[in-house]
Amino acid sequence: MDKFWARFDSWVQAGPFRSQDLAIYRIIYALLALATMPTFSPLTRYPSSLYKPPPGPFELFDGFPSKPVLIAMELLLAVALSSLLMGFFTRVSSLATSILYMVGYGFNYSLGKIDHTILLAVAPAVLAFSGWGSRYSVDSLLGRARQRPEPQWQMRVLGMCIGVAFATAATQKLVSGWLSLSSQAVLGQFYTKYLTEDKHSVLASVASHVHAAAPWELLDWVTVILEFSSIVAILWWRAFRGVLANLALFHVGVLLVLNIKFATDVIVYGSFVTWAPALARLPGVTLSPQRTEHRVNPALVYPGAVAAILAIAAGFWSIARYAPTFGQQTELVIILAGGVGAVCYGVTQFSALRERPRRARPAHAA
Fold first, then answer.
1. Global pTM value
2. Element (H, E) at 233
């Protein structure tokens, strides 16, 4: 048993991830989350009779909160994300972001539909303990960001959360007859979006002329296999990253055919990118591999940091509330960028395999 736990510990602590990569990702995550920030106040349009919460703490409520409460949640979320962007009290900001997302999404899910947006709430809760505020942050300027071990186990936990989320969705598809050969589930989803919801995506007109059952049945199976594969692939980082790349491409296809956006998933996939080496390849970009300590007077930093956080929060909250199309267009960019990143990752992996030196064959095999 001791040998098993020793191997398990070794597996948990193994990985290619560095705190510098996660510090860059913290900024990317916060910016994208601010740009696509949800609004909770529209929930007040629905009567209490439609309030059907999933099992859990939201059953304690009789209906949706009042509009001022929901607007306050939106503002607090904007402040928490802005603080996370600046790396100001990073751990507190991360946990506050996660809690506010979970509460807001919990009320959204009480209308009966639960989706993968929850991953956007899970990521900061896990990465709050990764040291992703140790660089490029106000905390590092103030000397509050302590040096920590590289964040391998935190990434294992986040990967498991992604795997469980997709495996849960795949299991639901299996028990509901998604893979039945007598029907095509994806085709049903397509016609629901195309005919009843009038969602005409880029490839919708082309897809509407595909009447053969085989291609649609293949999509049913590919969907379930991809969703199940993530929880198996977490055993090996290369396999897991490959699955995420395929999922990112799959999301592009879902967007182009069904006009369904999974931008929040793509944002979370970004945590598994080694950002520092990728950005270092860009012209004019230089990132120091060493962590530098800059200690400045808190009295000079605090007022400016608080003012910047409030200004950023007010700006993005106003955009989310009064210009929702900005967030919708940003989601499209995120999904397409994820597809491009997936292709680039595939090319680099293929190139690495080709450049790998071949093992010398034994003399007798010549």
1. 0.91
2. helix 213-233
